Amino acid sequence: MTTPNTDLQEQIAIALYGNAEYYGPEDVQPEWERRGDEERDEWRQIAAAVMPIVDAAVKRAKAEVLREAGRDLEREWPNRLGIGLPPEDYDHAGDHAIDTAHEYLKRRATEYETGDSDEHR
Questions:
Q1: Residue 71 burial class via C-beta count within 10 angstroms: exposed 0-12, middle 13-18, buried 19 and up
Q2: Around 82, how many Cα atoms within 13 Å sit in the side-chain half-sphere?
Q3: pLDDT digits (tens, 9 = 90+) for 76-115
Q4: Residue 68, CA distances (Å) to 19, 102, 110 in order
Q5: What is the phi/psi pair of residue 30, to 5°?
Q6: Residue 43 class from Cβ within 10 Å (0-12 exposed, 13-18 middle, 19+ buried)?
Q7: Residue spans of beta strands (DSSP E) within the chain
Q8: What is the DSSP letter of 35?
Q9: How far apart are CA 108 and CA 63, in angstroms?
C-alpha cells in the first residue's frame, strides 16, 4: 500500500475511538489527544488487527484494476485509448507491444493478489 501502515493504522484507531460510545455520547467523549498514551496504544492495537484485512482488500483492488486494463488492451484497444487508426495505417508490430503490456498487467495482478510484489511500485 502507498500509505504507511502506521499512518493508516493511526487514522483507523482515531476513527474507532471517535465512534466508540465508551465514555457515553460522542459530545462528552474526551478528545483523542487528551487520552493517555496507554489508552491510545490500546486503540492502535485494535486498529492493527484490521490492517491485514485492509491490506488484502487493497491488493485485490489493485489486481482488479490491472485486470481491467488488460481486458481493455485485449479488446478494442485503439478505440479505448482514443486512437482512431484507419485500417491502412494499422501496424501489426504494435500487436507485440500490446501483447507484452497485456502479459505484464496479468502478471502484476497475480503478484498483487499473492503478495509476491513490491507494493510501492
A1: middle
A2: 0
A3: 666 656 655 555 555 555 666 667 777 888 888 888 888 7
A4: 36, 10, 13
A5: -60, 145
A6: buried
A7: none
A8: S
A9: 7
State how far the Cα of 100 lies from the Cα of 94, in Å rounded to an integer.
Answer: 10
Grid cell digits, residue 8 = 493508516
Any idea what DSSP says for residue 31? Answer: P
Give the separation between CA 51 and CA 12, rounded to whole angstroms.
Answer: 9
Length of the chain: 121
- C-alpha dihedral (42, 46, 49, 54), degrees to nearest 10: -130
Does this model's pTM top 0.85? My answer is: no
